[in-house]
Amino acid sequence: MKNRELNIAHFSFKDDYGAMSAAYELHKTLIKKGIKSTFFVREKTREDDSIAEIGYSNSMEERLLKIINKLYFDENRINSGIAPVNFDCIGVLWDQDFEDMLKMYDIFHIHWVAGLLSMDNIYRLSQLGKPIVWTMHDFHVFTGGCHCPESCKKYEKDCSGCPALIENYMDVTRSILLEKQNKYSKNIQIVTASAWLQEIVHLSKVFRDNPCEIIPIGIDTDCFVPRDKREIRQKLGLSADTKVILAGAQAMFQNVKGYVHFKAVLEKIAADSYCKELIRQRKLVLLTFGYAGEAVDYGGKVPIIHLGFIKERERLCEIYNAADVFVFPSVQDTFGMTATEAMSCGVPAVAFDISAMKEVIISGENGYKAQVNDASDMADCIVKILKDNPIDPRLCRKRIVDFYSLSCEAEKIIQLYHKLMEGQRTTDDEVFGSACKVNKKDKEMNIELHNFIGRCSFDILRGIAPNQRTNMTIQELLLEYNPEFVTPEQKVNKLLEEQKINCESLIYIYGAGEYGKRTLSQLEKSGIHIQGFWDMDEKKNGKTVEGYLVSKPGEKECVNERIIIVAGVRYLEMIKCLMGYGYLYCQDFY
Predict the structure, then answer these.
(1) HSE-CB for 186 with a 13 A CA cutoff
(2) 406-425 and 18-32 are packed helices; what angle lies between their axes, rounded to 10 degrees?
(3) Using the 8-state DSSP alphabet, how is residue 145 labeled?
(4) In the chain, which end has fewer C-beta atoms inside a 10 angstrom radius, N or C?
(5) Contact call for residues 247 and 286 (beta carbons, < 8 A)
(6) How many angstroms separate the CA atoms of 379 and 132, rounded?
């Protein structure tokens, strides 16, 4: 089968950064190689017609599931350093139109989809009789909800008594794992970035019998290239002879990223005689990037500059090139894109001899591997690079170009697609679909999860759910945990799509500030005019904004059959005000 004949549907929660960006870059590379491909996401952040935004249904059921996910999973973790734990019942609205549209594709390729595809969504995908490829970007696919289990290996058995949660209500993680066992077909083709993760997949209860291939995540080696260090350091306010240690990750505060233990490594570095002299001369600095990097207590004497979260790849390339060495102290990572991107820029990496780095780093060629959790060994490796600079940047980059580029990944994925298509043609349909048939056990597990959702819903309505603040109403919960519904442009578009407003509607905008003006602008683009603005600010009362009179909110009985659109940064306080006047959310105001 020729490349142009393949039509692939990729699924990823978003398209912006980390694993989701890696999935998107693969999708674009496949298109360049002649593969027809569509990238399905919840929310698109790029102007690209090949990305299909599924969006949110904003149904009461979806909003309730998101509240359950927030209260019983996300905010129910033992501590904030634990990676996210997600409720796998949150998925897209599956109707006949959606299913008919999917039938046009030859292969479904699933990536990081927590919050996009539910267990039931994936089950229904498998019922369509098309090959499914699932690239593992973390452990969540085969656990009871956690994305990185740290030292826990309960995914090998039943995920009961989850140690990541403060209280595991109704032992729901066990129910989730059983549901995955029942709903996920044994024909799903698993892809891992390393032999290390492949071994873990084969030990998991969910996928131990599934086919699994190793295809490393591809790096854009055309973007991440060596640059002029002197010029980049000058932009950062650093001298050309400053020794620069670089460390960074999307979420530096997570335990598995290892940065909470990086303090011990820095202490060892600061105690080294060569580095002591560098520090005395102010010629040694640690650069960090990522979410909450500034909150990590590194301590020690090494000066630190935190650059914040870096989304732009061009900017990230510059930062890599400013460094003499990139440090990757993760103890449980499915690949290690930041380290690999740095090596693509000719910057050697130092990592623990674990996870994918066991295979990516060849000591002495593109970096060094330290003994796992050995701060002294990692410090020695870093100092060796700073002092002797034994790594040839050309060889460092060459290994990534030869084995870990996007082109390498895409070629291997295409080969896998062809193998699956050939296998499908020679496999009896009844055999292919046998793992997808509903049996009595499936129904029992559905009931168990439905009971969990029912109990959570009842507790939320009574105001006694875990992490639910005292006197917090269901309306406030629905609003607080559904922030995508309060952006002015999105809100107006959603109201128009759902036909909640039209040219005949009597509309007030509550909030006469910047959000209010944006809301008005979006309404006027659709030919809709308003009655006026509401605002609690006494200084605005009686004035005009954009030609409309501003007044204070009125009691409900005074404005029957009028629609109020809330537009303000402090929208929860504004909502409480309206509720105090007797208005109902999604009936009188939006």
Answers:
(1) 10
(2) 70
(3) S
(4) N
(5) yes
(6) 43
Order across the sheet with 132-135: list the strands.
51-53, 36-41, 7-11, 107-110, 132-135, 189-192, 212-214
C-alpha closest to that of 139 among 211, 214, 68, 190: 190
Distance separating alpha carbons of residues 98 and 124, to the nearest angstrom:
11
Instruction: Please give the Cα distance from 474 to 478 (Å, whole number).
Output: 6
| 3-state secondary structure at position 508 | strand
Residue type for position 296: V
Q: What is the pLDDT along the chain (590 residues), one digit of tens a residue?
A: 555 589 999 999 999 888 899 999 999 999 999 999 999 999 888 989 999 999 887 677 887 888 899 899 998 999 877 888 999 999 998 999 999 999 999 999 999 999 999 999 999 999 999 999 999 999 999 999 999 898 899 999 999 999 999 999 999 999 999 999 999 999 999 999 999 999 999 999 999 999 999 999 999 999 999 999 999 999 999 999 999 999 987 666 677 677 777 888 999 999 999 999 999 999 999 998 887 555 556 666 899 898 888 888 899 999 999 999 999 998 888 888 999 999 999 999 999 998 899 999 999 999 999 999 899 999 999 999 999 888 999 999 999 999 999 999 999 999 999 999 988 765 544 434 444 444 444 444 578 888 899 888 888 877 888 888 776 666 566 666 655 445 688 788 888 888 889 888 999 999 998 889 999 999 999 999 999 999 988 889 999 999 999 999 888 776 567 899 988 867 767 877 888 888 887 778 88
Would you list the DSSP string of 420-454? Answer: HHHHHHTS-HHHHTGGG---HHHHHHHHHHHHHHH
Q: Which amino acid is at 188?
A: I
Q: Which of 180, 136, 174, 137 is nearest to 157 (CA)?
A: 174
The H-or-E segment that residue 457 falls in is helix 440-462
The identity of residue 130, as a single letter, is K
> How far is residue 328's CA from residue 339's CA, in Å, rounded to a whole number?
6
